[in-house]
Specification:
Strand content: under 5%
Shape: globular
Structural class: mainly alpha
Number of helices: 4
Largest sheet: none
Radius of gyration: 11 Å
Order of helices and strands: HHHH
Length: 79
């Protein structure tokens, strides 16, 4: 799976949780699109879908944007 496919899947996953369209570069937490509860939902969904766990202390780092999260998944995914 290439990075563009991961970005599309991550955007779709996040949009399904927050019920809002997100751009790949949108600042998810900083802009308020994702709050602490939805961040946990996203982290759990990423683990289920891609098989990579986001350490709780690093959630805010990796959920900066769709692109940042997709890059993390590409490095740590088992699928």
């Amino acid at each position: 799976m290439d990075i563009q496919e991961i970005e599309r899947e991550v955007a779709s996953l996040i949009e399904g949780i927050i019920l809002t369209r997100v751009d790949d570069d949108a600042l998810l937490i900083e802009s308020g699109l994702i709050d602490s509860l939805s961040a946990v939902d996203v982290a759990l969904a990423v683990e289920r879908r891609f098989g990579c766990k986001i350490p709780p202390t690093e959630i805010d780092l990796h959920l900066e944007s769709v692109k940042v999260l997709a890059a993390y998944i590409a490095e740590h995914s088992r699928s």
